[in-house]
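hiii so um. not sure if this is the right channel but i have a protein structure encoded as tokens and i wanna go backwards to a sequence. like what aa goes where. can anyone help
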């Protein structure tokens, strides 16, 4: 599985050198992620199974970060490792950030709380110490720092959630908003969460962000029917959608997200964010 994904990464690198460095970083992240997952003995996120149905009906994600105290020692170490990977590749700022997280000048828990943004709006203050590019990268790596643990929750409870009728545009596991999704069998649109790797079915006739049903549109690029942008003219947000049904290959949406950076640029140019 990982081997196939790394092959896909190499393929996209040759097709699209612009995102080569980011794809290289992703390749290294995927290896570290698997390593982390193999080592998990005591999962950080525990789920009270008696509450699942109620939460799903009420639109509450399974993991409520604001409600609990979690042992973030391992995710913090993973986060520092991720920053160092990024440092070796391109980003000059991340070494400094890794140092600040290590010595406590930057509070890892605050960064992580900020990452659960749909549930919790705290944690903005430390951002002032960083420039804009670093913030994007730090957010991305903060998401990833929780991924191995959250993915375990998604694997364990995914089936129950799929049959629970979850109808929200944010992730039922961790509350994160999606950036990319895919079309699967029978025109079903699935949204993907980067923070936990979960995918859930979501009606194509509603905006995942504001719920509007009247102002939706989509466009494709240069006749490439595999990729499209679903946009909402009410809230001006967008989501990237891939459709690989005809190739029958298993799609890795972490990889697709980076390989479709040109779609993000297009969306920004058209006034969506
Ligand atoms: Zn999630
Ligand atoms: Zn909308």
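sure thing!! here u go:
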């Amino acid at each position: 599985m990982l081997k196939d994904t790394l092959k896909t990464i190499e393929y996209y690198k040759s097709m699209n050198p612009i995102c080569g460095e980011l794809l290289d970083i992703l390749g290294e992240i995927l290896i570290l992620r698997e390593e982390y997952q193999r080592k998990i003995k005591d999962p950080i996120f525990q789920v009270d199974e008696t509450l699942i149905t109620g939460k799903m009906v009420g639109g509450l994600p399974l993991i409520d970060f604001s409600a609990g105290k979690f042992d973030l020692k391992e995710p913090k170490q993973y986060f520092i490792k991720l920053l160092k990977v990024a440092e070796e590749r391109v980003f000059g700022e991340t070494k400094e950030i890794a140092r600040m997280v290590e010595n406590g000048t930057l509070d890892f828990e605050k960064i992580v709380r900020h990452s659960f943004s749909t549930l919790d709006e705290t944690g903005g203050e430390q951002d002032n110490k960083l420039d804009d590019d670093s913030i994007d990268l730090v957010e991305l790596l903060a998401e990833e720092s929780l991924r191995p643990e959250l993915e375990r929750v998604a694997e364990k409870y995914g089936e129950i959630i799929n049959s629970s009728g979850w109808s929200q545009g944010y992730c039922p596991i961790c509350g994160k908003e999606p950036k990319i999704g895919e079309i699967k069998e029978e025109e079903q649109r699935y949204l993907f969460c980067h923070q936990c790797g979960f995918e859930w079915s979501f009606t194509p006739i509603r905006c995942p962000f504001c719920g509007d049903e009247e102002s939706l549109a989509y466009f494709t690029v240069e006749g490439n029917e595999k990729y499209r942008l679903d946009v909402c003219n009410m809230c001006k947000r967008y989501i990237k959608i891939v459709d690989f049904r005809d190739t029958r290959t298993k799609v890795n949406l972490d990889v697709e997200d980076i390989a479709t950076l040109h779609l993000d640029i297009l969306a920004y140019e058209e006034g969506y964010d």
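oh and The chain has a mean pLDDT of 88.
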